Amino acid sequence: MPRPVIGIATQTLPAFAGERQACWLMGHSYIEAIRLVGGVPWLIPLVPHDPETMNEIFERLDGVFITGGVDVDPARYGEPKSPLCGTIDPDRDAVEIALLQHAMGRHLPVLAVCRGLQILNVACGGTLYQDVAAQVPAALKHDHFPTRENPSRKYLAHDITVRGGSRLAHILGDAVVPVNSMHHQAIKDLAPALAATAYAPDGIIEGVEGTDSQFVVAVQWHPEELTDTQPGMARLFTEFAAAAA
């Protein structure tokens, strides 16, 4: 059986005068998570001004994996950019929204993590908190980003509670799961086409999925970093690859 081709949009690395030209890139752990479950990772350049090329790529895909990265441009959900909103990548926003619309329209499996959950919600008509700490004063600390002193991306920052009967509950196999946490934005208004399936102890939405039979699963944490220690995280990728195949 041919291996499923999984589309992964890249992110812009700006040019640095005298050192590098502008680049499109993506982290190894995302790509390896797909490769190791039998998927063929297809890195997608950010050329939203060339819809013909985008469509030629999209038509060859069997599934879509939307990864973490910089903040979503608040203009995408009708808000001015707050000073607390970080770096944005409008070309990535445009390509990922088009990619998600293509996938949803053709019933292709979708797996999304961290920023991926956020852009999925925006693509489906939802909104985001531009900075959880500022806009949700009672929230836990969610921005456990790696540092030079502690570069690990595996730190389990808090538990999430999974909604019984959901696709995510079936995959993870437990009602309460410890997760890593590397985000400062989160879902504010949930898109109508999505259902919340997991929550942090402070009520922040940590998982969503589609409301029909299509495989659409998104989580706010980084399961690609936990596949070697938590079987449920590994199953997110094996189930996604199986759906794409």
Distinctive features:
245 residues, Rossmann fold, nine-stranded mixed beta sheet, two-stranded antiparallel sheet, 27% helix
> How much of the sequence is in beta strands?
15-25%
Q: Would you give the CATH topology?
A: Rossmann fold
Order of helices and strands: EEEHEHEHEHEHEHEEEEEH
- Approximate helicity band: 25-40%
CATH superfamily: Class I glutamine amidotransferase (GATase) domain
Count of discrete structural domains: 1
Query: What class, by secondary structure content?
Result: alpha/beta
Mean pLDDT reading? 97
How would you characterize the overall build of this protein?
Helices cover 27% and strands 22% of the residues. The N and C termini lie close together (8 Å). The mean pLDDT is 97. It has helices spanning 28-35, 51-58, 90-105, 115-123, 132-135, 167-172, 231-244; strands spanning 5-9, 11-13, 23-25, 40-44, 63-66, 110-113, 128-129, 158-162, 176-179, 186-187, 194-199, 205-210, 216-219. It is globular. Strand 5 (63-66), helix 3 (90-105) and strand 6 form a beta-alpha-beta unit.
Summarize the SSE layout with pairings.
Blueprint (H helix, E strand, L loop, with lengths): L4 E5 L1 E3 L9 E3 L2 H8 L4 E5 L6 H8 L4 E4 L23 H16 L4 E4 L1 H9 L4 E2 L2 H4 L22 E5 L4 H6 L3 E4 L6 E2 L6 E6 L5 E6 L5 E4 L11 H14 L1
Parallel strand pairs: 1-4, 1-5, 5-6, 6-13
Antiparallel strand pairs: 2-3, 7-10, 8-9, 8-11, 11-12, 12-13
Helix pairs in contact: 3-4
Please sum up the structure shown:
The chain has seven helices and 13 strands. It is an alpha/beta fold and 245 residues long.
